[in-house]
Amino acid sequence: MNVYDEMNNLCKAMKESREFSMMKEARIKLATDKTAEPLVKDFLKQKQDLEIIQYSGKQPEKADIEKVQKLYEVLQLNPVAAEYLQTYIRFQMMVGDISKSIGDTIKEAVEG
């Protein structure tokens, strides 16, 4: 078994997944909504910034958390933005599951 061939198979399977196709469709719709698109990008950037703070072992400021939550609530009022965020979350969950499985395999190899 060639690991690189299997990686290519995994990438192909991801591209053929329901999560990938739904995300792609939602991204196209979002690109046509000139109001929602910059808000979604801003939300995802702020959310990522909070996650980076958490991964570094610190606690984000309460005001920053509330700001991101309020922006999320506003985005839920826009059907295009809401659809995009839902598909984004589903896709990220799939990627997270794959990453966890790969990480578990690496850990097993390193730790025995």
Summary, kept brief:
With 112 residues, this protein is an all-alpha fold. It has helices spanning 3-15, 18-32, 36-55, 62-76, 79-111. The protein is flat and about 50 Å long.
What does this structure look like?
The protein is an all-alpha fold and 112 residues long. It has one domain (18-111): YheA-like fold. Helix content is 86%, strand content 0%. It has helices spanning 3-15, 18-32, 36-55, 62-76, 79-111. Helix 2 crosses helix 5 and helix 3 packs antiparallel against helix 4. The protein is flat, with a radius of gyration of 17 Å. It starts with a helix and ends with a helix. The mean pLDDT is 95.
β-strand number: 0
Which band does the percent of strand residues land in? Answer: under 5%
Q: How many distinct helices?
A: 5
Domains, number = 1
Structural class: mainly alpha
Report the top-level CATH class.
Mainly Alpha
The CATH topology name reads YheA-like fold
Q: What is the first-to-last residue Cα distance?
A: 21 Å
User: Which percent bin holds the helix content?
Assistant: over 70%
Which features characterize this protein?
86% helix, YheA-like fold, mainly alpha, 112 residues, 5 helices
Topology readout:
Elements: H1 3-15, H2 18-32, H3 36-55, H4 62-76, H5 79-111
